[in-house]
Amino acid sequence: MSKLISLFLLSSLLSFSQKYINDSDANEDDIIKNIISQLTVKEKISMCHAQSKFTSPGIPRLGIPELSMSDGPHGIRPEINWDDWGYANRTNDYVTAFPALTCLAATFNPNLSMEYGISIGEEARYRKKDVLLGPGVNIYRTPLNGRNFEYMGEDPYLASEMVVPYIKGVQKNGVAACVKHYALNNQELWRGHINVEVSDRALHEIYLPAFKAAVKQGNAWAIMGSYNKFRGQHCCHNDLLINKILKKSWGFDGVVISDWGGVHNTNEAIYNGLDIEMGTPSDKNQSKRYPYNNNFLGESFLKKIIDREVEESVLDEKVRRILRLMLRTSLKKNRPFGSINNKQHYETAYKIASEGIVLLKNTDNFLPIEKSKQITIAVIGENAKKSMSIGGGSSELKADKEISPLLGIEKEFNNAVIKYAKGYSSDENDNNDNLRKEALSIVKDADIVLFIGGLNKNTFQDSEANDRKSYQLPYGQPKLINEISKRNQNIAVILISGNAVNTNWKTNVKSILQTWYLGSEAGNAIASILSGKNNPSGKLPFSFPESLKDNGAHYFGNLSYPGNGVYQIYKEDILVGYRWHDTKNIDPSFSFGHGLSYTSFELTDISSSKKEYLIDEDIKISCAVKNTGDFEGKEVVQVYIGKVQSKVNRAKKELKGFKKILVKKNQIEKIEIEIPIKNLAYYNEIKSDWEIEKGDYIIYVGNASNNIYDEILITII
Fold it and tell me: Is the pLDDT of residue 286 over 80?
């Protein structure tokens, strides 16, 4: 401390602050305490709200820089104007477009999630961003949610396992991952005001685990609140979610940032855990230089401090958290420089895209297509050429390059004759009848038809601020697929989407690929799967119900989804996705965890380490994976566990472990999956705590939720 005092006496306030921050002998708490002591009340207040669309202010006189934020989570958003949503039209904000997080989840590969986080973190750092507004881990509740493509599927365990390495990868670069949207933002319709009612069990068992893992295992430095209400309070300033659960129970030491315009009440913003308010519409009647003073955490907050209505210590706690975030990012010593659009980033994007593609159907081994053959391939569909990095809302990107599916196919199959027809159009000015006739005219004589359809990022498709209006493929695609199949049965459908779609046309096609929004390397990745250069190994991170009524959220009617415009009740409770299908014995069109390969696998020698376990022990599941086909490939062994005769309502089975493994043809690889008994607990609503039921459990081992190879009975004593 004497060293610090001497520095203070010999230096100006600015140089003192800078030296103190860089003093290797000073701990974080002392640095923060010292800086707070030098701040005026107005300066503290200024740090709690925006100064532009994507920055919050620093303190120039102390050499404390502003915080710069950027939308993600699939790439760094183009630069926005200072005080409106127009693009700044810069030429230096082109980036790598990484695959959507649905694709990342479909890889079932946490190592790729780490690579993803490192790469996007490097691009954020190069663009001088301090906070990446992502990843998103809201649970896939309904296939109509327009923003599902930004998230990691319907299973809380899968999302938890995939989000942690992503966060760690981003933050290696001195960039904060801001995990969103906390919590229960499971639809876009009425997102700004819908009041969600959900049981404590569903809250803790389904909708919070990925956020909890992000905090307790990933050490996320920031969390973004969601737009909706939960039990009457907006989630950006919700006492239960933020104060009691996030900060007190989980011990979160980072910053809670509002979604843009998600703040509605000064007192709640002050007392219910919000730290930085962003995006509140500014008062255009004031000078454009200082409009953000009118935010809820602006002048009204200041007045309450001055009038002693609010203790300054409440403000200091917010500033303490903000400064801690700055010390980890904008004030971090020896911070990496970052990089952008380099070979490594494109390789990462390609690997994730290739490994996330899911082979849903492949009758008679229709795929892969032999490259050497001189054949005619008819490529049909708007999505074969349409850019998917633009649109969709805040995740829109300005990709340095984006290889379309058509271009990738033309490059990969250079011995083939490629004929293209649009077939359908999302542009209402186009004549879909004429487009359909053109497509039908070229498919008759083709050796293979590749129909490239699905959704897009237009309004009411996969897009922020609106939900889908229908479960069907749009723009007349089902009719066109069926008409093509009557003229040529050698048809494969390549779906591009971030959501499940109705596949009632599936019996009329040979193969189906679910390919997601794949980013810069989309076309190359798709073509590599079609040719067999890469063997598909993706698994569905959410179920494809046969129809909406087979989805738990929709089964109970409008009050369950989408609500009545004011509130909604999650009546399916804990039975989300495959939990609903399995428990209610409903066959999906394609199940959670489903994904075929060009080779074949057998799971054998499945066993548990013991038959009886104490509560503090770990279950060890052993399994041999045999490749019985003709290709090297990757398989995902999935372990589900269900309670026999539970005293509370529980799903038939829940994912509790998985492992992805590469197996060469005619080879066998042995794996072991370890599952702590504590992970079998349910949330006891009476005790408001987790509880492990003793008694019998069934362990289900397979490669999809509905494809189980063996069951093992164990007992917890």
Answer: no
